Amino acid sequence: MVTAVSTPATEPAPYDEENAPQIVLLDPALVVRDACNAREEDTEPDEDLINSVKEIGVEETISVRPRADGTYGAFKGWRRAQAQQIANDSAEGDGRPVRRIKAHVRDDLVGRDGWTRFLSLVENKYREGMTARDILKSQELSLIGMNEVERRRAAKALGVGRNAVKQAKAAQKLDDATLRRATAGGMDLEQTAQLSEVENVPGAERRLLRALERDHEEGNGGRGHWDQEMALLKAEQADTDARTKAEEDLKAADIPLLRRPHYSEKDHSKPLTELTTGLGNPLTEDNHKGCPGHSARLDDEHQPVWHCADPAAHGHKVRPQPKKPRTQDDERRAEERRTVIACNRAWKAAAGPRQDFVARLVRQKTLPDAARVFAQEIVLTLPWFYSSWTDKHDSETVARFLGVKEPQNADLTETAVQLPKARVVNALFAHVAAACEYDIRDPKTWSHLNEQRARYLLLLEALGQDDKGSYQLSEVEAQAVARHRPNPAA
Q: Which SS3 state, helix, strand or coil, does residue 361 take?
């Protein structure tokens, strides 16, 4: 089939429904597929449609744009137009009438490819059969082709945000099956794009769908559980990326990375800290580099632990030390170590959603009373953590909460001059929240959370619930504040 290409127009006129052209009857042979038709898959009419058109013609009006060569590009109803073309081809032999097709001719759309694609997307999006990939591609291409006014109108009509073009492009990286599951699970465009960022993390899709389900179950329109799960997945992705880079650095340096031996295999390798030279001198990375057995394993932080792959073969001696059998205490300590690493990573990840929520609170027109009272109390009582933070003259976090551009270079003196009276309490809370964030910045804070720190987290949790569940504590935060929660029986 031929595909129509739009002819540019100098100054497209706005479409006025009241003065729209009447429906006209066109020869279907003059109708071709418009290049901005949103549907790119499943574009052919099926047998049921063709048989229906043979009997009664096309009932629903199609929409077309005129072309310079006298034909018309169909951006709505191309499958119906094809069905009528096929029906007309065999009409004479079957004793049926050759029919024309009702069409709405949109002269105002000549040269307006972005808006045309958007209208085609709206037409097809809610029809059965249009794939998630077609929808994403059309969202991206139609919004790119619009001016700013049209883009705002279209984004509102589609229910997407200001970053829809970028998000649609990212979401298209997912395979068809994942896209279908994401759509069926209720993910919006932004969430589908975020899934594409972390899809390689094991279980990411399942975990995000469960987080989304929990947000839906609460029924208040928030996405607190989603944000926390997404932050944790990003942290795991970063951890995986760090390990990959460490492995690539070893490979670039031509240093073998030792794999963990199977249960039944004997491990001949030993770390250099347990070895000496033949004369009993210590072995280090520098004096061992020339050994054919020079190799490494990566520790939990992805740092190389230098080994010799076969000390006996290369003339090294093992440092004399009593060998202790592995005990249950050793297993317990190893498990505790794994827990600490996981909780440290989770605590760091939770800072992102938490600080994003604080920024949203600060930028609201009216700061919640609970946040105002908390900030006033801190300023009046000057607890140690707050006074010690103010001594550091750290303004970047405050600037970020206030929405200052380039917060790392912000001049808060200028910001203070421009700050309206009604926003002073918001700035006060931003200041106090920045001090609280600094106080809990250590990844190990979860293990020794005091009452003051817990008050800050519990405040944010309550404010998030009041804000339709837009913020939830992460699992590690909830675990850390558990012993500080008010006792309802008291």
A: helix
Backbone angles phi, psi at 101, to 5 degrees: -125, 135
Q: Count CA within 13 A, CB hemisphere, residue 312.
A: 3
Beta-ladder partners of 295:
307
Residue whose C-alpha is closest to residue 36's, from 131, 158, 119: 119
* Pairwise CA distance, residues 400 & 437, whole Å: 12
DSSP SS3 for 429: helix
pLDDT at 457: 97
Picking from 456, 487, 459, 457, the residue whose alpha carbon sits closest to that of residue 474 is 457
Give the pLDDT of residue 131: 64
Give per-residue burial for 145-168: e unless 16+ CB within 10 Å, then b. Answer: bbeeebbeebbeebebeeebbebb
Dihedral pair phi/psi, residue 331, rounded to 5°: -65, -40
| Cα-Cα end-to-end distance for the chain | 77
Sign of the C-alpha dihedral, residues 240, 243, 245, 248? negative
Length of the chain: 490
User: Coil, strand or helix: which one is 32?
Assistant: strand
Tell me the DSSP string of 216-232. HHHTSS--HHHHHHHHH
CB 101 within 8 A of CB 58: yes
Longest CA span, the chain: 105
| Strand ranges, E, within 203-352 | 270-271, 275-276, 294-298, 304-308, 317-318
**For residues 265 and 249, what is the distance between their CA atoms, to the nearest angstrom?**
27
Closest CA to 474 of 342, 371, 300, 378: 342
Among 362, 357, 447, 425, smallest CA distance to 398 is for: 362
- Give 10-residue mean pLDDT values along the chain (490 residues): 43 47 86 88 81 83 91 91 93 89 90 86 61 66 68 68 77 84 85 91 94 90 93 94 95 92 82 89 92 94 94 89 71 87 94 96 95 96 93 91 90 89 94 96 95 96 93 95 80
Cα(248)–Cα(251) distance, rounded to whole angstroms?
Answer: 5
- At 334 the pLDDT is 83
Residue 101 host element (H or E): strand 101-105
Q: How far is CA 419 from the centre of its chain?
A: 33
Beta-strand runs (E) in 272-374: 275-276, 294-298, 304-308, 317-318
- Grouping H, G, I as helix, E, B as strand and the rest as coil, residue 1 is coil
Whether residue 74 contacts residue 81, with contact meaning beta carbons closer than 8 Å, is answered with yes
Alpha helices in 95-222 (DSSP H): 113-125, 132-144, 148-158, 164-171, 176-184, 189-198, 204-218
| Nearest by Cα to 27 from 108, 116, 105, 93 | 105
CA-based nearest residue to 198, from 167, 229, 224, 225: 229
